[in-house]
Amino acid sequence: MLNNIDVSKILFLDVETVPICYEFEALEEKTKFLWDKKTKYLQERDRLTAEDVYEKAGIYAEFGKIICISVGFLVQVKGEAQIRLKSFANKNEKLLLQEFIDLLNSYYNHESYVLCAHNGKEFDYPYISRRLLINELKLPKLLNNAGKKPWEINNIDTLELWKFGDYKHYTSLELLTHIFNIPTPKDDIDGSQVAKIFYEEDDLDRIINYCEKDVVAMMQLFRKYRGEKLIANSFIIST
Known about the structure:
The structure is a single chain. It is built from eight helices and six strands. The protein is globular. The protein has a single domain (about 1-20, about 65-239), classed as Ribonuclease H-like superfamily/Ribonuclease H (Nucleotidyltransferase, domain 5, 2-Layer Sandwich). Strands 5-4-1-2-3-6 form a six-stranded mixed beta sheet. The mean pLDDT is about 90. The relative contact order is 0.18. It has about 240 residues and is α/β, with parallel strands linked by helices.
């Protein structure tokens, strides 16, 4: 089935998110109240306070924001497969989201194009969509699933492909790259450190590099699923 997909029509992506405010105390009182209400189960399960679990705020679109979206696409140059990368990163979330949807609307606006992300259907696609609406931006065609049935949504999820129908099963990209002998994207930082690097170190370039490595790892994993060889580093180009 995967071998019937035109890989030139796939836009691979990954997002990096952080809490809307770095410190819990910086939140408005109503937001604190709603966070406490939202995370009551986590607090009771782990015997923690709302402030203790606030480090998880970045994974909730209502309490977090996107600071980087990296995308990758496969091209053929003189018979060799190449990975081309591009990142949208900005402290101003609305600006980076606008640049991202401008790309989708300009080059990936036809129904033959699809997105691909690891755990994309549970995280990346809905998170981006929610933050677009919060920022009063219009959903691009590739993310507008209103009224569609699940089997009518063509966007790809490399985690879903690995599940083979087992909906209880979660496997991280890090584990999959390990078992498929793909160079790890976690050789510098991991997701738990992104907020600290963004707010304390103000190092957006380091986050971009990390996000792009995740995209490359996912694209290499997709090639493994298709029985194809990995693309050498010399054929991976960031623009």
